[in-house]
Every structure is written in C-alpha cells, then in structure tokens.
Design goal:
Length: 114
C-alpha cells in the first residue's frame, strides 16, 4: 500500500506516497527522562558501594542535614574501614611481592665481607 522507494529514502520532511489514507504514521518518540535518571542513580549507588566513598562523605547529599550524629559517624566509620581494607589488600598483594624481590636482589648482589 506504500511506495517502497519513497519509504526507503530517508529525507527530512520527505514525501511517502500511499494508496490508502493513513497508510504511514509517525513513530512516537519514547520519553527517556525519568528512566534515564533512575539508571544514573542506580549506577551512582553501585559506584558508592564499590568504592566506599558515599555522597554523605562528599557533602553533596541534600538530606544529610537531617541525619543524626550517630548515623553520620557510622557511615564515616564504615567508609574508613573500607579504605583500610583496600590499603591492606594492596599491601598484601603488591608490596609483599615487591619486598621479596628486593630482598632476593640485595642478597644476590650485595658485597660479601672479605
């Protein structure tokens, strides 16, 4: 019912000939505002959980003035524990190997007392 050549040619404001009235209708655009912002909020939360630096610690939470002192201390304590855990894992994995390699090289190449 529609001229295929007209339908395949993409032009702004292009004409598509049809034999039936209403044979071609525009495709409505989907609103992505609210779901898009929900997705961004989700990924911000995932990032905060992985890194340990929350928006409370950064001072950008709008509701942080309504939080209690004890609650804020618990959040700060948890974030400090997470930072300490990351430092311990880093030291255990990378610095331990580096220290053993330095010891090996010093033992191998040091001048022996004569």
């Amino acid at each position: 019912m529609v001229n295929v050549d007209d339908a395949l040619t993409s032009r702004p404001g292009g004409i598509i000939r049809s034999k039936v009235l209403g044979g071609v209708r525009p495709i409505p655009a989907q609103a992505i505002g609210a779901p898009g912002f929900q997705m961004l909020e989700y990924w911000d939360t995932v990032k905060e959980n992985r890194v340990g630096v929350t928006r409370y610690n950064q001072g950008i939470d709008a509701d942080s003035l309504n939080k209690t002192k004890g609650g804020m201390e618990m959040i700060r304590s948890a974030s400090m524990q997470r930072i300490e855990l990351i430092a311990r894992i880093f030291a255990e994995t990378y610095l331990k190997d580096l220290t053993w390699k330095i010891l090996e090289l010093v033992s191998k190449h040091q001048d022996k007392p004569g």
